[in-house]
Amino acid sequence: MATRSLPLKKRGFTFEVFMWAFTRFTVIAMYGLMLAGIIGGLFVSASTGSNFGEILYGAFFPNIARNLMDSDVLTILAKLMVIAFILSAVGHGVHGVLEIFDDYVTGEGARRWARNIVITYAIIASLIAMYIIWTK
Amino acid sequence: MSLKRDVSLSAALGYKGQGPYLTYILHRIGGSVLFIFFTIYILALLGVQVAIGILSNWVFQIVFVPFMLFHAINGLRITILDLSPKLIEHFRTAINIEWVVYALVTIFALFVILRSAFGG
């Protein structure tokens, strides 16, 4: 099967190209953060003797779980990583959800409303997540 | 312009695209499941007890984890093929490898969930 590939420069910088690149970059950021999170979690698990799953649970649910990090630097680093992961996931997810809506919501007005609701929801949810994870 | 697409899920799954189309539609379902999961996660962060209960419920985990894992593993395959256009020639092989990886990871994840649920 012959393959066709067009360099980014020749594709032009349209909205579709931007969103394609944005979706790819956010997902690569997420995979990178997952890898860093697993390595970091194993490091903390080895140094504190805590359960790996409970370390991740504590990082993602600081409001209900105990913080198992053994230093302030690690706690701040974990908070920053979780916030970065959530922002990447939201950025990636917004585009995916909008794409699904665009396929199944066919009216112009309904499509515009769907876009506004999804983007507003993503912003509010991100702000809530950032605030709780940083302050708890 | 208004589009009209009346394609049922059964018709979509029977589409001649077969394997690649199945991954496409499962990727979308997985993304939608992740959207629901994210909403429950935000509610749990806000301290809503029902949301916390749902997240720690093993039935919820059994249902959601396979879809979420599929989305992550299929997304990795899409990203690799997107960033290495020469590999697109082997996309059917890539999908077969993906199914094997997915099966192994999902079986392991389900085993861990069930063991945790039943106190093994």
What would you note in describing this structure?
The complex is a heterodimer of chains A (136) and B (120). Chain A is mainly alpha-helical and 136 residues long. Chain A has a single domain, classed as 3 helical TM bundles of succinate and fumarate reductases (Up-down Bundle). Chain A has helices at residues 8-11, 15-48, 52-60, 72-104, 108-135. In chain A, helix 2 runs antiparallel to helix 4 (72-104). The longest helix of chain A is centred in the first third of the chain and has 34 residues, at 15-48. The termini of chain A are far apart. Chain B is mainly α and 120 residues long. Chain B has one domain: 3 helical TM bundles of succinate and fumarate reductases. In chain B, helix 4 (58-83) runs antiparallel to helix 5 (91-117). At the A-B interface, helix 2, helix 4 and helix 5 of A face helix 2 and helix 4 of B.
List the helices and strands and how they pair.
The complex is a heterodimer of chains A (136) and B (120).
Chain A: H1 8-11, H2 15-48, H3 52-60, H4 72-104, H5 108-135
Helix pairs in contact in A: 2-3, 2-4, 4-5
Chain B: H1 9-13, H2 18-45, H3 49-55, H4 58-83, H5 91-117
Helix pairs in contact in B: 2-3, 2-4, 4-5
Radius of gyration of chain A over all CA atoms, rounded: 19 Å
Structural class of chain B: mainly alpha
- Give me the oligomer status: heterodimer
> What distance lies between the first and last C-alpha atoms of chain A, to the nearest angstrom?
54 Å
- CATH class call of chain A: Mainly Alpha
In percent terms, what proportion of residues of chain B is strand?
Answer: under 5%
Number of structural domains of chain B? 1
Give the number of domains of chain A: 1
